Amino acid sequence: MNTLRYPIIFSALLTSTAVLAEPAKAPEEVLVTGGRNAILSLGGSAQIIDEAMLEQFDFSDLNQVMSSLPGVYIREEDGYGLRPNIGIRGATSERSQKITIMEDGVLITPAPYSAPAAYYIPNISRMSAVELVKGPAAILHGPHTVGGAINFASRPISDDPLREIDISYGSDNYQKLQFFSSEKIGEYGYAIDLLRFSGDGFKELDGGGDTGFERNDINLKFSWQPEMQGEQSQTFTLKLGYADEDADETYLGLTDSDFSADPTRRYAASQLDHFTSDHSQVHLGHVFDFNDSLSVHSTAYWNQFNRSWNKLDGFIAGIAIRDVLNNPDIFTREIGIIRGEIDSNGSEAETLDVTENAREYGSMGVQTAVKLQLTQGDIEHDIDVGLRLHQDYVERDHSIQGYLMTSGRMTADGQQRGDKLLDEAETDAIAVHIMDTISWRDFKFTVGLRHENISGDADDFLNNTSNSKSQSETLPGIAVFWQYSDTLGLLAGVNRGFSPASPSAGSGVDPELSTNYEYGFRYNSQNLSLEAIGFFSDYENLLGRCRVSDPSCTPGEEFNGGEAEIAGVEIISQWTKELSQTLTGEVSLSYTYTETAFQSDFSSGFSQWGDVESGDELPYIPEQIARLQLGAKATQWEAFIALSYQSEMRDQAGKQAISQVTHTDAYSTVDASGSWFINTQWTVQLSVDNLLDEEAVVSLRPFGARPNKPRTFRLRAKYSF
Amino acid sequence: MKTFAFGFALAALLPIAGCVDNSGGSNRAVTADNFDFVAMLANYADSIIVPNYESLADTSSLLAAENGSIAAYCSAIGSDNEASARGAAQAAWKTTMDAWQTTTLHELGPIQANNNALRNRISSFARGSSLSTCGVDQAVVLANSNPNFSLSSRSANQRGLGAVEYLLFSDNLEHSCSSQITETTDWNTRPEIERKQLRCAYAQTLAGDINAAAQRVVKAWLIDADNYRSEFINPSSLDTNLKALSDALFYLDTETKDTKLGIPLGINATCSQPSCPEVIESPYAEYSLNNIAQNLRSFLNLLQGGSGLGFDDIIAQAGVAEVTELMRQNTEAAIGEINTMSTSLRQQAEGISNEEAAQTCLTAANTPDSQRSIPACNLYGYLRRVTDTLKVGFVAAVDVDLPDRAQSDND
């Protein structure tokens, strides 16, 4: 149980693993699961992608990383994963707003309570591990427990001096430059992680123009571990981070016919679309180990995120852009203007609305957890008690500017149009949890409770309205794991899922609530690991949240979706075989099957739902996701090839055969990589994403058909010294 | 044993994926999920509404052009060609009237803007708003004598196709005003040829105004002009526009059935006499039945969406295709009834001069397949069958509310 000593905040009492990776370089002090070994024999569902696995392909796109895990749904958007859409076990993937996302155990999305859409997610390139926890395991990590939680573990401070220079160059002028330096000197340690990556983009703007992006990420970590008497020890950690982004990104996709002709086309009307952001963070952590059985883990954190997204939002008046793209043969004039082929006539119906979506977010708080181990005869208790005081806010100022399309260029119409949205929301939240994992013979029983007390206020300065929303929810969870034999373990659990309504939600809007069940088994032998878990999420109320891109609703407005059921099976497996003394082969499989159904009839202003009948399937949840990876590892080289498949997703709730309704494509992509370890200092890696250059409509939102990333090459050199 | 346990555990996972209850939702409501309303409205705009208005604009243009049929008639007055030229002008008026009657079943959007401004310039015929022949007579004089004469200052019931009809078709060249009206004091003493020329000239002016209004309507709809079409098809306004289109069909009930037939025939309670032939539409051209037939044809075309997506497809999607069939059969029966008539509506209405005739008419209206002594009354019966289905089966299948004006029947 030694691995259970280290979690910074929460213990890993409910977690398990089916991932057999390379010997872990996992920084267990920043893992919420406790690491790979800790989750082998525990009662809930969890997976970890460690540093060795991240190195296999060196993806900078979080979507590609997360797609290797079961129970995770990805909706691609820009092809680079700049703003991922990740869902877990049926929780909507829409801007990853229904999952709890943490960095080193600290809530990291811009305003997880007030505006949970994740416009900021840490760059995966500076992480040493990614953890995924689901089911009963998720109640330790709120506020969103309906699907699960993701924790990004940043690279730890190295015990030994370590310097790395990591350079990549690839298709579409993709460039990545990373410098890492870390060591411990006596009681002190530091880590410097400097990252910059960019690309020119793979889309071609009508009339020319940039479609690429650039990201910078600077992170400093300092530690102080003062010498103490006896078995007591403590560590202070200060983490400072700054990240920014400059991207010529858009919400605008294509009509089906234009997509078929050229999926990488971008219409002229998106020529002014531009995203900029900056993110700052200060995290001060403290771990006090009184002895092997008692430790306290505390963190004070402050995050600030500012973003501005100047982007096409349709026409000032008239047809919604999504409707134009869905019906280009009907709205011929409007699509002509969007393409830059027809000049605007000056009417509001033909004036393009380019809205400056400026927002400021803040998130701060303190959290502490006490970890205690007690033994009574042959019963062992691992008790975790935690408290978090949190505050976050969002301020939105969306101002409109009208543009006329003239000869393919957009010129401002010069009119003062004021704000489309001017509001703010803030939330104070207190979260407490207690969990006891009771080990007895071959059984582990886990009993836990989480309580969220949320108080939010929202002001709409355009409509001069205010709203307050208080929510209080107690979320129990229970799980059991039975080590049936040396190789086979059985697990089952049930927990309460919760995702709070926003501060602006009216009294008629309820929080998202579910009862989540899971059961399964875990098989581990010398060469084979296999975990299969069935899950069933019984929603009392599903909550839809309007985004800027949704027509006929106010951004942030929420909609009750009533009862819904989501069920599925997750399988993850790995088989390894020593082919020779110097060569090892491995096969990894991840598979998720999901069924969904609303359980009531209703009409919703939320465009993804619309007129819903009982039995309708939820939108944007694929029935099947699979990933099969083959690998070969030798002393001086390793190579991997991965086949990923995702079935179609319906664009709107419904029960008709998916082939008869608007849907994304089913698609399969093949990624491959080969690494050559020249010596202990030099590594060279060649990666190919989408080797077969599969073209697919991966999303029809926000506006129109969006492509996946075409075949791209990356050549990487890494020097360690 | 362990192998068995492994297999058992794997098998045990399978049922969970089948436990989602997706069995609900058996109602047959027609929604945007199962019906392409946008394509339907686009079909109405592109295949019916805009072509109808373009046809109206084309015909009115021929009527009003400087070298058009009215102009030719004006030039021919007093010549040997006068009669034939007048006949040609009258024929052109009828063609325009046909085109207008076709559009009246989709009165929505620009033509209704500003309190029906454009509509009234083309035709102001409506219940309780008869043509002011005296007003037209005054305008004929003023248009010729007053340099400040402005057509726009004339009230709606002195303009439009009704006024042109009076000027082209009425054989009575005497004015219809009382003696107190100064403008027409000397009218009856003027030479016949002058009166014809003045009336014709004013008909030309009115026709020009009708044409201008029709062109405005077309411009309002055209994609490359004001593009009301997009507003009409806009999915965000789907409910509103579907309701407007549906409401427009009720012209057949309130105007065609009641105003054009029920009141003149005395069936509708608005007429307190055995019959009220004086409120017939197009009395001078005796074109009332043609107008009704045109309304019926237009109704049938709109009901079926021409050859594209239409209300009939919604109704079929709702599982009650017999509603469409019922309306189609009765509409065709009504058109067939008109085709067999040999006397004008005015004559038939004037024939209902006592209670016995009125009762005969009511009987025919209630049982239109029975005797046809006053076939216009049988026609009314068929029309009522159509509109009864419209008010019940249609609104239920299309899931729209009954328009206020069609809420009650004063039969």
Automatic annotation (TrEMBL), chain A:
It is a multi-pass membrane protein. Transmembrane segments: none annotated. Residues 233-691 form the TonB-dependent receptor-like beta-barrel domain. It is found in: Cell outer membrane. It comes from the Bacteria. Coiled coil: none annotated. Keywords: Cell outer membrane, Membrane, Signal, TonB box, Transmembrane, Transmembrane beta strand, Transport. GO terms for biological process: siderophore-iron import into cell. GO terms for cellular component: cell outer membrane. Residues 1-21 form the signal peptide. Pfam families: Plug, TonB_dep_Rec_b-barrel. Residues 42-149 form the TonB-dependent receptor plug domain. Belongs to the TonB-dependent receptor family. This is Membrane receptor protein. It comes from Zhongshania marina.
From TrEMBL, chain B:
Keywords: Signal. It is found in: Cell envelope. Residues 1-17 form the signal peptide. Residues 49-365 form the Imelysin-like domain. The keyword Signal applies. The keyword Disulfide bond does not apply. Gene3D superfamilies: M75 peptidase, HXXE motif (1.20.1420.20). Pfam families: Peptidase_M75 (PF09375). GO terms for cellular component: cell envelope. This is Imelysin-like domain-containing protein. It comes from Zhongshania marina.
